[in-house]
Amino acid sequence: MKRALCRLLSAVSLLPLPAAASAAETAVDATTIFRFEQRDISGASKQDLMPATQFLGLDVEKLADGNLSLHFSGWGRADLADKSYNNDRVDGSFTYGYLQYRFKEANANVRLGRLFVHEGIVNEQVDGISARTDLPLGFGLSAFGGATVHTKHLYGEKSDGKGDSIIGGRGSYRYRGLLELGASVVYEDNAPRLVNYATTTHRLVGGDIWLSPVRMVEIMGHSSYNTETRTLAEHSYLINLTPVRSLVATAEFNEQRDRSYLSAWAMFSGAALNPSDKSRSLGGSVSYDVAKNAGLSADYKHYTREVGNADRYGVTGRLSFLNNAVRTGLGYHYLRAGSGFAIGTNPSASYHELHAFALYDSAGIFAALDGIDYIFKDKVYNEKSAWEGTASLGYHITPALALSGDVSYGRNPQFTEETKGLVRLTYTTTFDRKGGKK
Amino acid sequence: MRIVHRMLPAAFLAGLILLLAACAQMQELPSLPASHPEALAIGQQADCSECHDDQAKGTLKALTAFSHTPAFVKNHRFYAASDDRLCAVCHKSSFCNDCHTNKVEMKPSYKFGYRPDREMPHRGDFLTLHKIEGKLDPASCYRCHGRANNERCVACHR
Q: Where is the signal peptide (chain A) (predicted)?
């Protein structure tokens, strides 16, 4: 009943739009993609795929008294040859669709419909309502509630393992641009009983902090506690140091206790997870802008898990020319990881990653080249590497309308050969004086 | 524990009532603009300090903290969790959903093949790579696929 009511409210929220749309500003993002792909899977027959996908995004601003807006995004796909993704020849999804009323004071807004909520430790999608506002003396408050947006049923089950309704919110306190403290909670309805999986209801409380005692230092992060398993779920913290504008050094620490942090992930039998297993990563990065159009960064991260430890390190470079019309990038990373992380019976999971790209974007023609190669220390399914190269070429028919095509070819352990192509028609408009989408 | 469960809806309603009551005190509190007054260059990693000084008004954080350095892009989740109203001044909701969504079939790097400069997840043969990365850092999988977007996972993980 609760779920039906929330869905009904979400739908009803869109009904008054035609009457309110007299002086509205509308922005459309529409992308039509025809894909052509030939898959050669080891030990199976070749497949010819021709899915046609339509993405549609809509933003209608300045409805009613000028403070009401509508936001919608979704996609649909039809297979014109072999099945491309699942057992459905036609599929689609309503990603989000909500009405938002934005108050002129206190950064307050109310949203109604299908929406994403990101507040402190909360990261959810709901069919319902959310409201938030700044309060006097630096305080702030947000709350949301509604029906859970379900995903695909788990194998052999009539559920995805999630409860039917969810509520939550965040309270915060800010002090003079130096400090922000937040406390957030997410409380989901009881998880359904599953036949083949163990589940734990999704309920977390947590706190977050942002601290900048001096401009060159930022400390931020959050910790969460699972009230169902009664143990800490996650710590995730980051320090940014910016001694000069062109140099940023970061250090990060992350720790997740699998039994608590992953417990609501029914697919991996949340309640059956090893209580002592945890993931910990510690690392840092340095990025330096050599010039306005050139940057270098280096990063390192050490991972610790029960099955072993690993290190990842690498460098990335970026360069642009012609007032940013030409952009290039080059990166190299190496993961050193032992047998605990390996595929199958391999003695090592280590691999090199090489990535390079170049693109050109003008008022008329745009083009891109992109290549990525994973070179395994030990062969995976008798393949030494997994690589893919993509070339893209397009033309802006009008400032809003563009036609482009991509061709890519690759070889990897999963598919002996993968040849892909697509034709893409994009129509993108933005509001006057509104910052661009990207 | 049952008492806590019964109290939660009441607490939620109380929060909403408090929110409405606080509206009467809101006249003096400023809001961020609905949108950035000038269009920003596509593909340019925005440097807020080019135009904005370090002076934070009221309780606002210094805008320079949001300059899109490589470190900011990599760690933007920390900022989005408390400041997505500021993100919305320049970015539409769909910008986030280019990568973060509930149910999507096409990899972002494929949909946006003409923009290899954008940080897109799962480039190349991630079907092979995820067998390593999933064991290395399951939390990074869970953030996007634990509560959403699980169709491809269910196909094999039974």
A: 1-23
- Residues in chain A within 8 Å Cβ distance of B2: none
| Cα–Cα dist A311/A313, whole Å | 7
State whether residue B15 is helix, strand or coil. Answer: helix
Residues of B in contact with A53 (CB under 8 A): 105-106
Chain A within 8 Å of B78 (Cβ-Cβ)?
A: yes
Residues 92-151 of B with CB under 8 A from A: 92-97, 100-106, 110-111, 113-118, 123-125, 127-129, 131-132, 135-139, 142-143, 146-151
Tell me whether residues A131 and B42 touch, CB distance under 8 A: no
Torsion of CA A48, A82, A53, B150, to 10 degrees: -110
Q: Which residue on chain A is closest to B63 by alpha carbon?
A: A177
pTM of the model: 0.88
Q: State the residue for tokens 């942002």.
A: A210
Averaged over successive runs of 10 residues, the pLDDT of chain A (438 residues) comes to: 49 48 78 87 76 94 91 94 85 94 90 94 94 90 94 89 94 92 96 87 96 93 95 96 93 94 84 83 95 93 94 96 92 96 93 97 94 95 93 95 95 82 90 46
Nearest to A410 by CA among A389, A395, A431: A389
